[in-house]
C-alpha cells in the first residue's frame, strides 16, 4: 500500500509533536522557559486535535450523504444489480459499456404522477419532454401509456409521429418551430405555445389568407431564484404587445398559457411564485378572454433526489408538493375547474430509469483511496462534468467502502466521472454502474474519440432486450462524402 501525501503530512505532524514533548520533558529545566514550552505544546496539541476532528467530520458528512444517495436508488434496480446473471444476460446481447433502462422504474414514475395528479385536479395531463431522452423505445413506451409528447423541433415532431403519436397528442414548444409544423399541429388538434414575436407574426400573416380561426398558447417568461428565463414574453409591455396582435386578428384566439421555470428545481415555492403572477395576469384579461382559456401548461423541471446533478436527497420534496405548489394558486380563477393543466417533465420521468454499466480498466490504490479508470467517458455521461455520479459495483458486494475517484478513458485530463464517492475496493475487469443517467445524458452523448454505447432495456428481471445497438465506426463516417 502507498501512502498519500496527505497521510504522510499528517503522520509527520504528529511525529514532530511527540518529539517536541519528549525533548521538553527530558531536557528543559524548570522555570519560565519550561512554562512557555508547556503552553506551546498545549496549543499545538489542541490545534492538531481540532484539525483531525474537522477532517473526520468532513469525511463522515460526505459518507453519510453518499449513503443517503445510495438509499435513494429504486429497490427494483438494486435487485437487478445484486446478481451477476443479469450482467451475463446483457453481455450476450451487446458489449459493455452499455446504457441500461429499467421498465419498472419508468412505469412507476408514470403511475406515481397519475395517482397524485387525479387527487389534485381532474384535468391534469402528463406530457413527456422528448429532448430529455429521445430514445425511440422510450417514446413508444410513453405513447403506449397515453403520455403526451412535448416536442421542440421538427426532428422531435417527426420522431413522435414515427412512434405513433397523432398531432392531437403533441405539444409544440420552443423557439425553432416552423410554420409548416405549427399548421400541422394546430390543424390536427394539438397545442402550439408561441415563444417569439416572429412566430406570432408569421402565424398572423398566414391567417390573413385563410378563412379559419386558430387557438394558440403563449409562453410566459419565468423567474428562478433571480434568474429570468429568456424564453417567452414577460409580464407588462411584451405580453401587452402579444395581446394587441391577437386582438387585432379576428382569426387568432388565445387558448392557453405556458411556462417552464427551469430544470432540477428542488423548491416548490419557485412554482408558486411564478404561478401567482400568472394567475394575476389572467385575471387582468377581459372576461371573454378569460372564458376562452382552455389550458395552462406549467412545464417540467422537478428535481430527482440524487440525480446526475446530485441534488441532496433530503432536499427534494415529493412530487405532490410540486403539483400543489403549481396548481393551488390557479384555484382562484373563475373557470379553473374547466381548465386542463399540462405538465411536461423530462428529468423526473426518466432520470432514475437509466444507468450505465462499464468495465474497470485500471485501479491505483493510494493510501485508503482508490483511483479507477473505467471504460467509458464523460462524452457518454456529459452531465458528470457538472457533478459526480452515484456509482455501485455490479454484482453488488458488501466489502467496506473506500473513497474513490473514477476517471474516464478518453485520454483527456478533465475526464472525471465521479470524485470522492464511496465504493468497495475494485479490480480490473469488475463492472461499475452509474445510476440516474436517463436525463440529458443519452441525448447529449457525443462521439469524441469513440462511438457511443448501445442501450438495453430490463423489461423484467429475466427479460433483457437490446433496444439500440452500439454505434460502429461505419455509423460515424456514413455522412462524409
Ligand atoms: C419547455 C420545456 N418543458 C419541459 C422541459 C423538461 O424539463 P425537466 O427535464 O427539467 O423536467 C424543458 C427542459 O428544458 C423545457 O424547456
Helices and strands in order:
Blueprint: H1 5-27, H2 32-71, H3 75-81, H4 85-93, E1 98-102, H5 103-120, E2 124-129, H6 136-144, E3 148-151, H7 154-162, E4 170-172, H8 179-187, E5 191-194, H9 197-207, E6 214-219, E7 223-224, E8 227-228, H10 237-247, E9 252-258, H11 269-283, H12 287-292, E10 295-297, H13 319-327, E11 340-343, H14 347-350, E12 354-366, E13 369-374, E14 391-394, E15 401-407, E16 416-424, E17 431-434, E18 454-460, E19 463-468, H15 473-477
Helix pairs in contact: 1-2, 5-13, 11-13
This protein binds pyridoxal-5'-phosphate (PLP).
How would you describe this protein?
- The strands form three sheets. Strands 1, 12, 13, 14, 15, 16, 17, 18 and 19 form a nine-stranded mixed β-sheet that branches. The chain has an eight-stranded parallel β-barrel with strand order 2-3-4-5-6-9-10-11, surrounded by six helices. A two-stranded antiparallel sheet has the order 7-8.
- It is globular and about 105 Å long.
- It is 38% helix and 21% strand.
- β3 (148-151), α7 (154-162) and β4 form a beta-alpha-beta unit.
- With 481 residues, it is α/β, with parallel strands linked by helices.
- The chain has three domains: 5-71; 75-99 and 353-470, Lyase, Ornithine Decarboxylase, Chain A, domain 1 (Beta Barrel); 105-350, TIM Barrel (Alpha-Beta Barrel).
- Pyridoxal-5'-phosphate binds at residues 129, 132, 150, 173, 260, 263, 299-302, 344-348, 439.
